[in-house]
Amino acid sequence: MTTPVKNPRSAAARNRLVAACALATAVAMVGAAYAAVPLYFMFCRATGFGGTTQVAASAPALRGARILTVRFDANVAPGLAWSFEPETAAIRLRTGATATVYFKVRNRVAEATAATAVYNVTPGVAGAYFDKISCFCFAEQRLGANESAELPVVFFLDPALERDETLNGIQEITLSYTLFAAQDPGRPVASAPAARNDKSPL
Q1: Given a cut of 70, is residue 118 above it in pLDDT?
Q2: Residues 142-177 pLDDT 10s
Q3: How far, in Å, are 46, 48, 72, 200 from residue 33 at the CA level?
Q4: CA nearest 72: which of 101, 46, 29, 51?
Q5: Cβ contacts of 194 within 8 Å, gap of 6 or more
Q6: Fewer CB near the last or first residue (10 Å), C or N of the chain?
Q7: Residue 61: what are its φ and ψ, rounded to 5°?
Q8: Cβ contacts of residue 136 below 8 Å, gap of 6+?
Q9: Cβ neighbours of 156 (radius 10 Å)
């Protein structure tokens, strides 16, 4: 009985094929991991999942019937020496009406620093109807040494929320921000808006 002789060229070809498949799988997994983040944010913005707010160019033409209380919450993550608070704790707002509120920030160190805001709305289902026209959270903010600023947020509540049965018993919505130190404060970022001159009430 004779033992068949393995072809070394065939074995090498199989090894190269296995290696190529493993490499392709690894590249695909890395690509999927990088793509997952922007896809997740796109999903959140489209659906309001997790309290993610929406972006709008302008307010709706018609106002709704419901009036809700919108509360404001401000937090600073460890590692950022800023103070951060809303000018007003809460407002009463009719759906479809536009509101402008300001958040006070101050850099408490003797050098320029930059920050980025992360935000969400509670209850989470309300995020699909919380539309921002303008917000400081859309860009990194920089403050000079011991500088202060008032950062505006312009938003409205979409009247469509009145047709969402899950919001029938909701009387309050909270918009919450947390400021984090920018990863690279040395690179150019959007400057913080100048201090507001108009002190008239909303």
Answers
A1: yes
A2: 999 999 999 999 999 999 999 999 999 999 999 999
A3: 20, 22, 34, 48
A4: 101
A5: 149
A6: N
A7: -70, -30
A8: 103, 117, 151, 152, 153, 192, 193
A9: 24
